[in-house]
Specification:
single chain; 4 helices; alpha/beta; 11 strands; two-stranded antiparallel sheet
Length: 194
């Protein structure tokens, strides 16, 4: 018996997963975000020190990383958050402290106003936002390119961990050579390692 599946392009996957996300209730998002944080605790990554975390765009029904922040704080890790520059498509990284003040940018993303800048080469682990991913560790983001630029600047041994409410696609049709693949992706049910 042959299993035929249709391999979608990034554009098609963006449409599909934005629609799927729109169906999620706030209760479901909170429950599944907690499951993802629980999966994270089991991972062999706790010798690392600097963890970069994205802050969710609530309107886009992204994973609530609040639970991950609690895990990291409980393990006494250095937490790094970013500020976006839409003119250059770059991120500036700041150490999260008790004094960090946040403000929402024009896209509804909470960002640090200022603080202690963390050079990209110090970052050991990056939690990567995504809409979809495949069984090879390729991901589909929103298409702006911020994380493509950021991940390409990271050290080769920096761990790139995707977070997804959904299980992987078989493959993504239009993967480019310069696309940076994930090392892991965490879903509410399991951790995928690539």
């Amino acid at each position: 018996m042959f299993n035929y599946f249709y391999i979608m392009t990034k554009k098609e996957l963006r449409i599909k997963y934005k629609q799927l996300r729109n169906l999620l209730s706030n209760h479901y998002i909170e429950k599944m975000s907690l499951e993802i944080a629980n999966q994270l605790v089991q991972m062999p990554i706790w010798e690392q020190n600097y963890f970069h975390v994205f802050l969710p765009i609530v309107e886009k029904k992204e994973i609530d990383t609040e639970f991950i922040l609690h895990v990291l704080a409980g393990k006494d890790k250095e937490i790094v958050v970013s500020q976006s520059d839409f003119a250059t498509i770059t991120l500036t990284h700041f150490l999260l402290t008790d004094a960090t003040k946040f403000k929402k940018n024009q896209y509804g993303i909470s960002e640090p106003v200022d603080g202690l800048v963390v050079p990209v080469e110090k970052i050991d682990v990056v939690f990567v936002p995504l809409l979809a991913f495949d069984k090879f560790g390729n991901r589909v983001g929103y298409g702006k390119g911020f994380y493509d630029v950021f991940l390409s600047e990271c050290r080769p041994d920096t761990l790139k961990i995707g977070l997804s409410f959904f299980e992987p696609e078989e493959a993504i049709e239009d993967v480019f050579e310069q696309d940076v693949t994930l090392d892991y992706c965490i879903t509410p049910n399991r951790v995928y390692e690539f």
